[in-house]
Design goal:
The chain is built from ten helices and 22 strands. The chain has 446 residues and is α+β, with helices and mostly antiparallel strands. Bound molecules: S-adenosyl-L-homocysteine.
């Protein structure tokens, strides 16, 4: 059975297309539901590859990116954007159906007007190239590999930041800086991380080096700043470990103040190299506005912002409530949150550096009155200790924001065991062209 002709039946949880061969489901990238496709099964049935799209869908578009086939990041770039939004809504609907065995209405996914170059954070790895035209490659690691996809522009990353990377590459070649070589553990420059604010245009460049010694760095910095007036700060981060983590612990400010500012929904936020900040600022505004609209806060409420990062949600909500409590595990994020409160002159907010589950357990012991909880945990979701404490605190409303609805529905199963009902489900497209879906759920206590 070397060549198989078949139809794409549906999508799986990662929005890959599903086909059925010999009653076995196979997930494929780059296909659209109802397309008739040809598969190559000449090697064996466990190694089936897509050969040809025989009958393309009307929803198919030419991916507007030269590295679409190599990179593996934007797995939906071959699909019309409206269709992407539709299948994300359906995905959330299916996840709820599978978990709760009943149908929940899911609002249409809120998409972007212009879904390109939306990422405010670029992370680039450098690699020495032997025998090529250029002896340096800069790009992303290919999925599940240590091979680099070398590129000059990326369809979803900030364009100014992409240009800065190209200048860094030129300067590295001119000034004879080698890229770090993982196998031989030599070479200086490992990565560059660029964060840029869409509103203030302030731009941070973090050069990740393998050792503290960065010869001629002042000349490098001077040349880089001369070419890009938007760069407001440059940081050297030292990562000498053999690890897949990009940043090391040690940092040295080479230029500027060591952080950038962003304006989000009329509040000013400090962004440092390490603390979490939503990567799509435009959609972040949509996400927070929608979440707070769903919370329908009132002046006497005490709001708990759990997993609060640099305090964005709590600070934006602060003028609508009596008091805000923010809790976050990462010390640098809590420091930034406290500073953000000061800068914005917000006095009714208190941040705590703690594990959210332990912190909530303590709140239940103190019988603290919490009216509304906004929770925004990392991808893996929350835990039973946290969820049980939420049930004990008995807030009127819970707003659960999640970047992975697959773990969110599991947590919601626990939250709906004791008087809470799911009132609204609202996906927001924070990551256009990728498989990722952000989802807000409103729970109310009846
Ligand atoms: N609400 C913020 C951050 C969301 S990301 C925003 O929108 O920007 C999730 C955050 O949870 C991260 O800042 C991470 O550091 C934090 N976190 C992870 N595990 C935690 C835990 N056990 N307790 C408290 N915070 C945690």
């Amino acid at each position: 059975m070397p060549i198989i002709t078949t139809k794409v039946l549906n999508y799986n949880e990662n929005l890959k297309g599903i086909v059925k061969i010999n009653n076995k489901e196979i997930a494929l990238d780059g296909v659209i539901k109802d397309e008739v496709i040809e598969l190559d099964a000449s090697k064996d049935l466990n190694n089936i590859t897509l050969k040809k799209i025989k009958e393309p869908s009307k929803k198919r578009v030419t991916p507007p990116c030269p590295i679409y086939n190599k990179c593996g990041g934007c797995t939906l770039l071959h699909m019309d954007y409206k269709e992407q939004l539709k299948i994300k809504t359906e995905l959330v609907e299916n996840l709820f159906f599978n978990e709760f065995k009943r149908f929940y209405k899911v609002n249409d996914t809120l998409g972007m007007v212009n879904p390109s170059h939306y990422r405010n954070k670029n992370q680039i790895v450098f690699q020495n190239v032997k025998g090529g035209k250029c002896r340096l490659a800069s790009g992303f690691y290919q999925e599940n590999s240590h091979k680099i996809v070398d590129f000059t522009t990326c369809y979803i990353q900030d364009e100014t930041s992409d240009k800065i990377v190209q200048t860094i590459k030129e300067l590295m070649l001119k000034m004879h800086y080698n890229a770090y070589d993982e196998d031989h553990k030599n070479g200086l420059i490992r990565h560059v991380l660029i964060k840029r604010s869409d509103t203030t245009k302030e731009t941070m460049v973090v050069i990740v080096t393998s050792s503290e010694v960065f010869p001629g760095c002042q000349n490098f910095v001077k040349a880089l700043v001369a070419r890009h007036k938007d760069i407001t700060t440059i940081i050297q981060n030292v990562n000498s470990r053999s690890t897949s983590a990009v940043l090391g612990d040690k940092e040295k400010i080479l230029f500027g103040k060591g952080y950038i500012n962003d304006i989000l929904l009329d509040k000013k936020f400090k962004i440092s190299s390490k603390s979490f900040y939503q990567v799509n600022s435009k959609q972040c505004a949509v996400l927070y506005t929608k979440a707070l609209e769903m919370a329908n806060l009132s002046k006497n409420d005490t709001l708990l912002d759990a997993y609060c990062g640099v305090g964005t949600i709590g600070l934006i909500a602060s003028s609508k409530v009596g008091k805000v409590i923010g809790v976050e595990l990462e010390a640098s994020a809590v420091d930034d949150a406290i500073l953000n409160a000061k800068v914005n002159n917000v006095k009714n907010i208190h941040f705590f550096k703690a594990d959210a589950s332990i912190f909530l357990k303590n709140l239940t012991n103190k019988k603290e009155k919490i009216d509304v909880i906004v929770m925004d945990p990392p991808r893996k979701g929350s835990d039973l200790k946290f969820l049980n404490s939420v049930l004990k605190l008995k807030p009127k409303k819970i707003i659960y924001i999640s970047c992975d609805p697959r773990t969110q529905v599991v947590d919601l199963k626990t939250l709906t065991t004791d008087g809470y009902t799911i009132e609204q489900i609202q996906p927001v497209d924070m990551f256009p062209h990728t498989q990722h879906v952000e989802n807000i759920v409103l729970l109310e206590r009846k």
